[in-house]
Amino acid sequence: MNEPLLRVEHATIRFGGLKALSDFNLEIRRGDLKGLIGPNGAGKTTAFNILTGVYRPTSGNIFVLGQWVNGAKPHQINRLGLARTFQNIRLFRALTAIDNVRVACLTEAAPLVSAERLDAIRRKGGVLGRFATLLDSANDYYDWWRALVLTPGFQREEERLTRRAEELLEVMGLSHRRNEEARNLPYGEQRRLEIARALGTRPKVLLLDEPAAGMNAREKSELMVLIRQLRDQFSLGILVIEHDVRLIMGICEEITVLDYGETIACGPPEKVRSDRRVIEAYLGDSYLDSQPDAAQGGRK
Amino acid sequence: MRSGEPPATRGPRLPYRVRGIFPLLLAIPVIGLAQWLVGDMPFIVYISSIVGVNVILAVSLNIVNGMTGQFSIGHAGFMAVGAYTAGKFSLESKDLVISHLPTTMSDQVLLVVALLIGGSAAAICGFIVGLPSLRLRGDYLAIVTLGFGEIIRVILQNTEAFGRSLGLAGIPQWSSMFMVWLWAFITVLAARRIAGSSHGRSLWAIREDEVAAEAMGVNTTAYKVRAFVISAFFAGIAGGLFAHFVPIINPGSFTFVKSIEVVVMVVAGGLGSTTGAIIASVLLTLLPEGLRSAFTAISGNAEIAQRVDQIRMPIYGLLLVILMLVRPQGLFGTRELWDVLPRWFPRHRRGPA
Predict the structure, then answer these.
(1) CATH class for the domain made up of B42-344
(2) What domains can be seen in chain A, in order of their start residue?
(3) Most buried pick, A26, A42, B132, B161, via CB within 10 A?
């Protein structure tokens, strides 16, 4: 019952001789807002890639909503409710803003053979079990058929998807960019469009990879408000990778610090901030001088 | 890239139930009228049938090469599978008459059945070829499809049942301009509807960024395979039609050169643009014919015209090189005719919405 949305146990990955991430642990529950920091090359994005199925961990376990997902494909993990943004923006550049979001808005139309019936057939096992896979692909082709003959149900479904995408654009303040190609948007708006797109998949956990990179101070503080608002509005669990110490200390309730793939600290911002190893590895000695300033951000 | 804003925003919306079938209701009388007007001119019927088949090939290849961004260069292979399967079926069943139907009607029904069989055979081949190779990225698909096209040709050339290099002769000439252009219309309609649907948007997404598409819940391998299967199906239909209006089909009609011809059409029209593929395929099919007629008219001598036909491929290559230098995105890029026209005729441009 009290299963967290995302649970990572002792995840380790090696690329040849390099241990990019070792013994990484994490739990994210509904309403959590956690942070992941560390110097360049510490393994933050690698951690994201393991969580989202781009890489398979060498050892350790990952559970999304209680399901063991080691070795699952990225799209399967996404459908379980884990969506992400990318550090180096990866929008569908030639598609319009609305289409970027609509790609992510997955269809919810009733399939030819319902999931329950498929499950029932699978449970019987044997030859019939194999038949279920075939039936499932029949579902897919039926879906294409509906698009080709433009059934009334399909048209209604498309309109519903469009409305949902429009709502998400509205939430992210991008309605005025609806029909503009993604590549023509300013940088900050591209970052927001990526978040809108991730929300389109109806995630339960949102992973943000450096959402504030390249933003100016004003945009950053707006983003902080927005991230909190998203968590409450969509009742998400959020994990943020960020370089901006003030931003991450300001919004996160718990921070994990990585260095050379090792977790060197984990805890609430106050504790992490005063941790000797963190200061040495990441914050730097000069950070001690500016601490009163940062502490203010933490209390906000 | 306007991946299919529904055109309904421009005029009054049709009721949901009618919108699916409406374009066909509109097209059938028009194509019928065209058939009635020029149906007794064999040369025009033949040329327009060839054009129609090439339109089907180019538009269907565009689904894979343009929309999904994969590079397939074995379309003639799928065409051959469709042509031989449909041709063989018609050869076997040409004396068959469906009871209670006049012979001409019965023939047309049999033709449609033959086409569907040919298309399905090609689609199955597409699935078999696509499933292993579409898991890979980049150039592998090009190599695999190239190999597939050659394998099919070599198999046909060495199988007794398919007449070896002599090919199949005596296939009943059931096809008509009407049939070809009806199928061409269906192909275009299907391509446009895919482009404008959520499936099409997933294909565009794969073309733009596969990693991001996968992260957004798009099962990229499955989508690529489905696009490939649909594309192969229509190539099979085109082959089936082809088999029913040329007197003889042989492996020489489905060589690598034919595949490249179709790729050239798609690239010239603009990868991802359905109307671009249509216009490019019409132009590139009529160009040799036009040149031949022009040279005959100018010199009054048919020999020079024949020479023009011989240098068609170098001209193709030259055209492609020039096009890639001048306009690498093709005639229309990823846009459609109606996106481009307002730009060429600025007077008609609508004010900002």
Answers:
(1) mainly alpha
(2) 1-81+203-300 (3.40.50.300), 96-187 (no CATH)
(3) A42
